[in-house]
Design a protein that fits this description.
With about 325 residues, this protein is mainly alpha-helical. The longest helix is centred in the C-terminal third of the chain and has 35 residues.
């Protein structure tokens, strides 16, 4: 009998059971717990400076810096709504393997996907609220279903790698920059607090499922999956480039003053730097992500990923 295999599975089983227990205990409601009839306070920032990178724009007034953080906060919420579309679909797909098997793992994954559906609804509500209070003209360009079609066309290994990366940076953003910032909008802070509570379990399950998927692959399949992961990150960067340009134009158009062309270029570049930091680089730098990834790939594959990232970082 292979006792190593049994103890590994038992440990995975404990982790799924723990995810269910926490998920039940911290379960929250969009209106009763998070929004509570509130509106956004536009005297406050929506994102902390460490994420919005506004200090790279010293020629802006404090009010203008705050406006940058509010536009980025709106895009941040929309980006989560976008990625959660494909994350939810992939988690439901992965859960099929447990339909007639481990019912604890199945329940944990069903709760995971249910929470992502709720988060998408939360982020849609926030977009509506922001739309009522912010100047007209804001546009979130990427379409969640179109992006999901592209992402879900890649191998499960690549999608789970991207998903773990996303859920880990969500946790880091909250713990390291959103939670300690006293100048953030209270409603916005609560959004990230409640989101963080449920995302903590998601990251555990992403890792379990990614490692489990990895065990099924041949060396050739994994090598192709590494290339697909690079393609996904490049696609995310394409989305960020387009949205950064869009958000910079919206900012400039609603500032009630003229900017010289060098300053417009700087605003556009800072938007892109901020989005790349938020959605790509900060996740790559999470030690847990590197540890899991490097445990699955060869040094050559690691170098391939690093040289692709070098063009973004
Ligand atoms: Fe989420
Ligand atoms: Fe999640």
């Amino acid at each position: 009998m292979d006792t190593t295999q049994i103890s590994t599975n038992a440990r995975d089983g404990d982790q799924y059971a723990h995810c269910i227990e926490v998920s039940k205990r911290i379960r929250w409601d969009i209106e009763d717990d998070v929004i509570r009839g509130r509106r956004f306070d536009f005297d406050k920032k929506f994102l902390p400076d460490g994420l919005s990178k506004v200090n790279e724009l010293p020629f802006l007034s404090e009010a203008e810096k705050r406006f940058v953080s509010q536009i980025q906060g709106r895009t941040y919420a929309n980006m989560f709504g976008l990625v959660e579309r494909f994350i939810c679909a992939k988690v439901l797909e992965v859960s099929r393997e447990y339909f007639l098997g481990d019912q604890v793992a199945l329940e944990a994954l069903v709760r995971f996907s249910d929470e992502e559906l709720k988060h998408q609804e939360l982020f849609r509500r926030l977009e509506k609220l922001a739309g009522k209070q912010m100047p007209a003209g804001y546009r979130f360009l990427p379409q969640p279903n179109e992006v999901a079609q592209v992402v879900l066309g890649k191998s499960t290994w690549a999608v789970l790698a991207l998903t773990l990366h996303i859920e880990l940076f969500t946790l880091v953003h909250y713990r390291e920059s959103i939670e300690p910032d006293v100048q953030l909008s209270d409603l916005w802070k609560d959004v990230f607090l409640f989101h963080w509570k449920e995302e903590s379990q998601h990251a555990v399950m992403d890792e379990l499922e990614w490692v489990r998927e990895d065990r099924k692959l041949s060396a050739e399949q994994r090598d192709r999956a590494v290339n697909e992961l690079i393609e996904l990150v490049t696609a995310v960067d394409g989305i960020l480039q387009a949205q950064a340009k869009q958000d910079a134009e919206y900012f400039v158009a609603n500032c009630n003053r003229a900017f010289i062309s060098e300053d417009v270029a700087a605003i556009r570049q800072t938007m892109l730097n901020a989005y790349r930091w938020q959605f790509i680089i900060s996740g790559v730098k999470v030690p847990r992500f590197g540890k899991v990834l490097n445990g699955l790939i060869t040094p050559e594959q690691g170098e391939r990923i690093a040289s692709a990232l070098a063009t973004i970082m």
